[in-house]
Specification:
Elements lengths: L5 E6 L8 H10 L14 H9 L3 E4 L11 H11 L7 E6 L1 H12 L6 E7 L21 H6 L2 E7 L8 H9 L4 E5 L11 H9 L1
Parallel strand pairs: 1-2, 1-3, 3-4, 4-5, 5-6
């Protein structure tokens, strides 16, 4: 008898702005160097389904308005997934997706058992290139620590978007979390991420 597929939920990153005007200003000022920017690019998130194999079901929800993300919109959309999730799922958040999971699991009682939660290049406060606005974390991450399963924090020392110092804040708030420190992964936009594949399979 085949064992059921293990579910992996991956929440991508995005940008948040304090006002609509700030968002429009950012669009106007954005510099595009070539047509390559508009091509669909592979990264470790989109290749996870193939990399993990048939024993896993990788879910990659497209969160609303990722270029001008609003926490309430993401919270509502994420909630639509929950009835379809099974006990023992693994949650993965990258960048803004990581702080989203940290905030959501610190403020909401999750109705299913989580096996593990991975936060990749997670901002903690406002010390980033892009503001996090409505995604600000609560004072305590105790509920997240209680219900997030095995928590993993991955950050690269050369991240140009979210400073490496943000990792220390998570380590302080989540002392039981396991930490993976990298030297040269920048903001983890590479096509392959073998370390997370290994960790998922061990979870």
């Amino acid at each position: 008898m085949m064992s059921p597929m293990k579910q992996i939920v991956v929440i991508h990153g995005g940008d948040a702005f304090p006002t609509y005007e700030a968002y429009i200003s950012s669009l106007k000022e954005s510099k595009i160097d070539s047509v390559e920017y508009f091509k669909k690019r592979k990264d470790w998130k989109t290749t996870l389904p193939e990399t993990l194999g048939d024993e896993y079901m990788a879910l990659l929800p497209q969160m609303p308005n990722k270029n001008n993300a609003k926490y309430l919109e993401w919270k509502l959309w994420f909630g639509k997934m929950i009835p379809f999730l099974k006990d023992g799922m693994i949650l993965i958040g990258h960048s803004l997706g990581a702080i989203f999971l940290a905030k959501y699991l610190s403020e909401e009682r999750f109705p299913k058992k989580i096996s593990a939660t991975f936060l990749i290049a997670a901002p903690y406060g406002s010390d980033t290139i892009h503001p996090i606005v409505e995604f600000t974390l609560p004072d305590s991450l105790a509920l997240f620590a209680e219900q997030g399963g095995d928590i993993f924090l991955y950050h690269s020392k050369d991240d140009p978007v979210v400073p490496f110092s943000e990792l220390e804040k998570y380590q302080s708030a989540l002392p039981q979390a396991r930490t993976g420190v990298f030297e040269d992964r920048k903001h983890f936009n590479q096509e392959n991420f073998p370390e997370i594949v290994t960790a998922i399979k061990a979870a």
